[in-house]
Specification:
22% of the residues lie in helices and 26% in strands. The chain contains two helices and seven strands, in the order βββββββαα. The protein is globular. It starts with 24 loop residues before the first strand and ends with a helix. The model is unreliable at 99-104 and 129-139 (pLDDT under 50).
Length: 141
């Protein structure tokens, strides 16, 4: 029996993945109700799994956040990038996180600006990567 083909069910947008090969996405929450992923802009993003709505955008590194891993039992998340540090995130940390806009998170305009900049970087990267012959085939279609 042939293997069933499934299409993508939901997209989670806002982050950027053009500068490094891998961005690990992880499930967060007691029942995996959130999705988290790093970004080339040094942030990490948390979306609601069911809706794709961006819930939080946090500054995780001065360069790139590649990996995000949730502890299986405790309320702890580890993030890492291309430098030699791993950051540990907890809701009861003794040092506050560097979240733009304070504990509530960044202002909506800051989030929209970051997402727009990341999407622009993605489209510019795709244009630079695609061979010129493909553009000819697309315009002929």
């Amino acid at each position: 029996m042939p293997e069933a083909i499934t299409d993508m069910k939901r997209r989670y947008v806002g982050h950027c993945n053009v500068g490094t090969d891998i961005k690990q996405a992880s499930f967060l929450g007691q029942r995996g109700e959130y999705i988290a992923s790093g970004s080339d802009d040094g942030r990490w993003f948390i979306w609601e799994k069911r809706t794709g709505r961006l819930v939080k955008m946090l500054h995780g590194d001065d360069a790139v956040v590649n990996c995000i891993q949730c502890h299986p039992f405790d309320c702890v998340v580890a993030t890492s990038g291309i430098d030699n540090t791993i950051k540990i995130w907890t809701p009861s940390a003794s040092v506050p996180s560097s979240v733009a806009g304070g504990a509530a998170g960044p202002e909506t305009s800051d989030v929209l600006d970051a997402m727009e900049n990341n999407q622009r970087r993605l489209s510019q990267s795709r244009e630079a990567i695609l061979p010129f012959e493909i553009f000819g085939k697309i315009s002929d279609a």
